[in-house]
Amino acid sequence: MSNHTNLLQTWLLPGVTVLLAIFTGVLAYFTYRMAKSTENALKQNAQLVAETHELVDINKILVESEERHHQEEMSPFVALQFYPEWNHINIDDLIDLSRIEEHIIYLKGSIFNQGRGLSNNGSLYLLCWEDVGIGPCIKIDLPILAPREAWNNKKIGDIECIEMHFIEAVFKQEIINSVGKKEWVVLLVVEDIFKNKHLTKIEPNQKSNCVYTSFDKITDEFYRKLSNRLRR
Fold first, then answer.
1. Bigger pLDDT: 46 or 86?
2. Where are the domains of the chain?
3. DSSP collapsed to 3 states, 115-170
4. Residue 180 has what pLDDT?
5. Does residue 232 have a pLDDT over 50?
6. 157 vs 5, which has greater pLDDT?
7. Strand order, beta sheet including 110-113
8. Is 154 exposed, middle or buried (0-12, 13-18, 19+ CB in 10 A)?
């Protein structure tokens, strides 16, 4: 065996084997480090995604809240504005039946938009009650009302009024009875610029002999049910 062969077997092969082992160990170490780095990066990415989703949800809530606030700020609040010189609104004087034989009645006062938003597609309903429920219903359409704008369609002397007509002669006595018994209610249904519907309810307060007014926002489903009920 030559000296070269002995040298190869004695030093070079074991040395190469050791170097390969060292290299393999170093490669394994760096592979482990890369795997851990990848794992940490995935965890951080997952956390970042979760935080991003959370921020998106929070932003969505804020946007929806801001939109609701904006819509509320732009809501119309339509009510019956009474004759300004009246110190006390007596419900016995609120509805004038002096021309009921002509199928005409008057609601004393004006429709007034006291909100900050436009009132659109409005209707006024005067409902009379019977023992079995809703009796005669008189409806008139309302014009578009800007904020702080008032509307009426008749003036009797110095008193601004809303003139309302009914066709059915059979309603006359029922209206007289309902007004006399203070069994009536006025509904104002209007839309804002976002197509949301708003309801104002004006009804007699039997205890104080004046009127009670309430405001509410209603859904389309509620309005459909109300409309169907009023048509009966």
1. 46
2. 1-73, 76-230
3. CCCCEEEEEEEEEEEECCEEEEEEEEEECCECCCCEECCEEECCEEEEEEECCCCC
4. 85
5. no
6. 157
7. 78-81, 110-113, 150-151
8. middle
